[in-house]
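TEACHING EXERCISE
Course module: macromolecular assemblies
Task: Read the component lines below, then compare them to the predicted structure of the full complex.
Student: A.B.
Group: 4
Components provided:
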Amino acid sequence: DIQMTQSPSSLSASVGDRVTITCQASQDIKKYLNWYQQKPGKAPKLLIYDASNLETGVPSRFSGSGSGTDFAFTISSLQPEDIATYYCQQYYTLPLTFGGGTKVEIK
Amino acid sequence: EVQLVESGGGLVQPGGSLRLSCAASGFTFSSYRMHWVRQAPGKGLVWVSRINGDGSSPTYADSVKGRFTISRDNAENTLYLQMNSLRAEDTAVYHCARVRISDSSFIYWGQGTLVTVSS
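Instructor-supplied answer key:
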């Protein structure tokens, strides 16, 4: 199975800060990586697909980059409504696997 | 509007069985591969199983292989997960999810149904 190592597991930042989360795959997954946002009590929401493509309707302050084994997810200017847990997920091969999540809080 | 509504969760004893259902609407159900993803309380997301639109090629995570069975009824627009020999570690919210045809991005999720395995 492909292991997805996500870091940090939590972070606290101020409104307006730039926030970056990283995700490392245990083997080459090309560009086959998604990023999801999950708010408490809600289902996850797709933000980024194919490592760097912004899903329709998602604010442009969210972005993704990377390929192969190393990926990054960035919120360019943190907003109060961005408080959530973020997950990376590879879909290069089965079983589909998720990172452990990053809980983002406002300082 | 796409809707996925899970049902069938509840409290079950270790070793017991439960069948989850996911009622789909708002899209041509038989055209899409469907998945189950679970989330233990306070923990992360874990993929469980998937099935093709025509009901072929069911695939499972190792942790549930041989105990869980995914199926679908395209006439009733419903996805199922039969869970047998349940263990405490199966306690989780179970979500059904639909992917995009072009990739394996989960773009629609149900709100989930809670399964609690405890004596």
